[in-house]
User: What shape does this take?
Amino acid sequence: MKKILVYPHDILRTPAEPVHRVDQAIQELIDEMLETMYAASGVGLAANQVGELKRLVVMDVTPREQGPSPIVLVNPRITLAEGEDVCEEGCLSVPEYSARVKRAQRVQVCGYDRNEKEVCIEAEGLLARCIQHELDHLEGICFVDRLAPVKKALFRRKWTKLRPKDA
Assistant: This one.
């Protein structure tokens, strides 16, 4: 299991690098990221969040009682975004805080799975939101960066009290 970095760690602000080969090290990273995400009761995790500057995300928005149904995307890119949706959003790197964030309602994302097979996923609802959130991480963007200026100022004030002391 990996340690999840907490905002405003520098690595969370750094764009990730493309993965050139899904070798044994990347396979192990995928497994560790999935283990970490599930242990933290998250629905998505980007490699940046565990200190790895790789364009790699794992997600699973399936209700837990249905069992795991992980999605692994290597070098993902959004190829289509439509509509608008504003919903409450949280982040494993910003524990104990959530805020309403505007995102596209529907997206298409293309990338590669852990077997280097090209995949394209059309999504809406929670999965679309999760995809956009995790791909933001790969660009060094955290969901709190998307807040309006007044909300961002309120977050900064609140975060000094909420931020884990060991982070």
Remarks:
- Residues 24-39 form the longest helix (16 residues).
- The domain at 10-162 is CATH 3.90.45.10 (Peptide Deformylase).
